């Protein structure tokens, strides 16, 4: 039986040295507070997407989803925690007023 020989420069070498490892593809590590705010942003985004199902007109529904995505994408790079909290609070307030309008239709 032949022993297993890995080719030179194989996956084993790059994994052991850290070059090309799965960890190098990830971004910087988030602080706990950033992680919490990120989960709140994702929860708000999912809530908005689910709530848009109640919009009867397909083009209005698509426009609303597109607008929500653009707003979240536009603010993706924000790292200041106070600004993130402000954006989440403002977004939640705006969406709640929009929901009242949708429910009134």
From TrEMBL:
Complex 1 LYR protein domain mapped to chain residues: 40-96
Matches recorded under InterPro entries: Complex1_LYR_dom (IPR008011), Complex1_LYR_LYRM2 (IPR045293)
Classification via Pfam families: Complex1_LYR
Localization annotation: Mitochondrion
Entry superkingdom: Eukaryota
First-listed, main subcellular location of the protein, grouped into a coarse class: mitochondrion
A GO cellular component annotation in the UniProt record: mitochondrion
Alphabetical UniProt keywords: Mitochondrion, Transit peptide
Task performed by this protein: Involved in efficient integration of the N-module into mitochondrial respiratory chain complex I.
PANTHER family per record: LYR MOTIF-CONTAINING PROTEIN 2
Record family assignment: Belongs to the complex I LYR family.
Protein's name according to its UniProt entry: LYR motif-containing protein 2
Species assigned in the record: Triangularia verruculosa
């Amino acid at each position: 039986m032949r022993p297993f020989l890995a080719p030179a420069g194989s996956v084993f070498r790059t994994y052991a040295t850290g070059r090309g490892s799965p960890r190098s593809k990830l971004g910087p590590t988030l602080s706990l507070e950033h992680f919490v705010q990120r989960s709140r942003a994702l929860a708000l985004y999912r809530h908005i997407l689910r709530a848009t199902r109640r919009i009867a007109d397909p083009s209005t529904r698509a426009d609303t989803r597109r607008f929500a995505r653009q707003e979240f994408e536009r603010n993706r790079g924000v790292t200041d925690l106070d600004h993130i909290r402000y954006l989440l609070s403002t977004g939640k307030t705006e969406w709640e007023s929009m929901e009242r309008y949708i429910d009134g239709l």
